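hi support,

uploading two proteins for the ticket. first:
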Amino acid sequence: MSTSSDNTETRSDDCDINRQHRGNLMLRNHLKRLQSSPAETLLLDGGTGEELFLRGVPDDRKIWSATAIVNEQYHSIVEDVHRSFIDAGSQAITTNSYGITPGVGFTDGEEVKRLVGIAGEIARRAVTTSTSSNPAALVLGSLGPLVESYRPDLIMKHDDGVCAYQFAIQGLHPFVDVYLAETMSCLEEACQAIDSLSLFYDGLIDADDGVKHPLLASFTLQSDGQIRSGEHVVEVLPKLIQYAHERGVERKLFHFFLFIFAILIYSSHYLCNFIDATNKKVIGVLFNCCEPESITKVLKEIRANPHIHQHLQHPPDPSSPTRSLKDRPPKIYLGAYANRLTPVDPEWTLEDSDEAQAMREDLSPEKYWDEFVKLWHVSNGRESGDDTSCGTANSDNKGVAGEIGGMQLFGGCCGIGPGHISVLKERLIKKKK
């Protein structure tokens, strides 16, 4: 005989699954919009951790922003921070789960699962209770480095990392729309997250709940535009996409939806376009928690290496040859969310730091747009309404961004606040008109 408690739990599970299906539908609409034109964008949030500290949460040098999840008294502040980014115009917010990792002492996997679940629930509540006139935001589930940020030499062994990521992935799953493996310092670190997610999907297929969230992978860069490990982005990007493809990660996305739509949709041309837009798990590669100048440098490297253009949704040369849909991994979107920190020492660790990294004072919201985001987003070598080719402009920054085009996901990391996001929203809307 079923109990009232059992029935309540079943209804709760059903609500979670229905909510996740609605989130996947919203995500699919965003992806179709982004695919339709390089002028379309998805505006992310800014740095949650630093914003929490500005609002009174203690800057714990051991567990950093995780203190706002561990201590219930700060949960309302976390929710307020999420809501402030939504009010500023963010179309996606990120869970405050970055610091809940073994590297800072959270070695009990079940405790990690519980705490990241709290972070996910708070983010979801901020979205569902928001009174903003902006459309409902997506929730990105943060999967941060397992040991230390910026330190490829300190990452876990592969199998240990895959195991550790499982707990965060499981805890976030009921509340998020997309997983975000962020501040990855090397290809191997990102591959651990991919393998862990693939393993988790296998379990979900067995459970047949039909909800498989995709992945965004974001790398942190050195000042010279290389990944912190010294690897070149133009070498890592195709390897990452192929790795996920071989693991079958992208093939499991929207397994449930594709079955239903395959019955309802008779046009093979439309169905192929639908699959190309949604049937993948790694949907984007971003660059974060680094100086914006380093992101401009990596765009220059991407521009100069046409062999990776076939992997981009909006390559700088639309006539570049591509393989058939059957043979190639799915294309990805590019994005960036820089920080406002001064350059970080290569030997830096949170554990050994006595105080927060100093902020630079020369990255106002207007400057972040004018000198960086606006130029990263330029497509086809021209700004909207501007007859001057960025490729022939005096500024090297303009030449770089004007040639690559197609960067469509923007936001900010440490020190980039709601004020920055508000300016980005305003300028992106103006630029699109």
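and the second one:
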Amino acid sequence: MGKDKKEKKEKKSKKEKRPREEDEPAKKIQKGEEGGETVRIKVPIAVPFSNDHENLTKKVLSIVKYATTGKTMVRGIKDVTKIVRKEKAKKDALVVLAADISPLDVISHMPVLCQDKNVNYIWVPSRTDLGAATLSKRPTSSVIVQGVPSDKADVYQKVVKLVAKMGKKA
């Protein structure tokens, strides 16, 4: 009996020492020598990508923040998939996906689903930043924004049009 308890404690301590995949920071790569800027690794299907256009990442994350305060935002793969699949998404809804998701299979169905249902979507570089924009301490892999408060509506419409335009090119 005494050995069994010791073995269980050893197994438990080994499990606790192993870091969780969510807690590990994303690997970084260098982007050119002149800037020395670091960029998070992104999934290969991340098109349209918000970093491809000037200041679009900041605008998208600020829209997510406005939608969070206005309670017109839903986060998480399961809930976003349900809204898009059941066609409950509004005409000008915007799905925001994080490009540093591992494993890719978790989120790989979203671009195809959004294209089939004619919902605009865009990829942002970091799930940590996306989680922070939703005013949460947890990283978030996907968010759907279905509107913002009226004082920010013009910015929202501009971003949605730009994302739609980028999506048609891809």
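thanks. also noticed: The longest helix spans residues 153-169.
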